[in-house]
Write a structure and sequence with these properties.
With 169 residues, this protein is mainly alpha-helical. It is built from six helices and no strands. It has one domain (5-145). This is Permease.
Amino acid sequence: MVMTHYMELLAVNQPWNLILYMVIPVALAEALVATEFFTVFLRGSNAGGWKTANKAIGIFLGFYFLGVFLNLITTVIPTIQWRGIADILAVGSYLSGVIPLFSIALLELGVIGKGKSDDEKMKLHFILLTVFLVVAHVAMIFGMVDPTIMGWDPNAVGGNTPPMQHKHP
């Protein structure tokens, strides 16, 4: 079966790549969504614990994904021979998740949004989280597509790429 580099990255070095690149970021993003809901639903004095958890998860996830981004952009991306548009969309969307996630961390640390009210910060937090969820789902959708469906020919000159060798200890 022909697969995108996104899917191949998750498939090699089992189970570590799957855990590092999918399970941890997605579980933390889902926890961020859940705590975000409770923070909004219990606005006021009842939301204290949820808001604290939301802030901690947002900071940790932003820096974790920045590490994932830097690791992939320096060790994997330079070696890729693209497998068509599905491959580019999957990998590009996945990597673009660093923008909203690291922005959430910076927002929580007070680096950005200093002059904004609590409601404006919450709105920005929601928007950034929504952007991440959209790009993550675009990455998953195009990552699962057989790249030949979108026109890539593995038999074309330079089209047949060796399997990824990106491994973690």
